[in-house]
Automatic annotation (TrEMBL):
Residues 31-85 form the HTH cro/C1-type domain. GO terms for molecular function: DNA binding. It comes from the Bacteria. Keywords: DNA-binding. This is DNA-binding Xre family transcriptional regulator. Pfam families: HTH_3.
Length: 113
C-alpha cells in the first residue's frame, strides 16, 4: 500500500486575503480548483494545452506569467470562462491557506540551503 504524505497543519486565512492576491496567484488558485474538480495532474493539463509540464507547474505556483494565447487555449480546451479561473470565493480559502503554507515552506527551505 502506498504511503500517504503527511500534510503540515495549515493556518486559516481571512477572507480579506482574497483582495491581496495578484493575477498570477488568482490564476494559480483557479487552476488548482480546476485540477481538483476534474481530477487532473499538471502533466494532463499541459498535454491538453500543448505546453510543457514545467510551464504549467510554474503557472500553478504563481511563478510564471501566462500569455494571452495560453489563456485563450485554456478557455477553449477546458470549456471554462477565464473569469471563473480568476474568481476567488470563500470556498477557496482553504485552498489559499494550503497554497500559502506550501510557498512558505519552499521559501524556508530555500533560505536554509
Amino acid at each position: 500500500m502506498p504511503r500517504l504524505k503527511r500534510q503540515p497543519p495549515v493556518e486559516a486565512v481571512d477572507i480579506s486575503t482574497i483582495d491581496t492576491l495578484s493575477f498570477q496567484e488568482r490564476l494559480a488558485i483557479g487552476l488548482e480548483r480546476l485540477k481538483a474538480e476534474r481530477k487532473l495532474t499538471n502533466r494532463e493539463l499541459a498535454e491538453q494545452l500543448g505546453v510543457h509540464e514545467a510551464y504549467i507547474s510554474q503557472v500553478t505556483r504563481a511563478m510564471r506569467d501566462v500569455k494571452l494565447s495560453t489563456l485563450d487555449k485554456m478557455q477553449r480546451e477546458w470549456n471554462v470562462v477565464i473569469e471563473d479561473l480568476l474568481r476567488i470565493t470563500e470556498a477557496d480559502l482553504h485552498r489559499i491557506a494550503v497554497w500559502k503554507a506550501r510557498r512558505k515552506k519552499q521559501r524556508g527551505a530555500a533560505t536554509d540551503s
